[in-house]
Amino acid sequence: MSTRADVAKLAGVSESTVSYVLSGKRPISDSTKQRVLAAIDQLGYKLNYAAAALAGGSPRMVTMMTSNLFLAPPSRIDGALVDGIVNGVRGSGFHSVIWPISNEDDSDIEMLLELNFSGGVILMNVMENDPRVHTLERAKVPFVVLGRTEVGFAYNYVDRDFENVYKLALAHLKELGHTHIGVISGNSEIHDFLKKAAAKLKLTLNLLSIRNNHDGGITLAKDFTKKYPNVTGIISLLDIATVSFVNAATSQGISIPGDISIVGVNMLEEQAESSSPKISTVAFNAYEMAISCGKIMVEVIEAGKNSKKKKSELWVGDFIDRGSTSQL
Question: Where in this chain does the record put each HTH lacI-type domain (predicted)?
Answer without folding.
Answer: 2-56
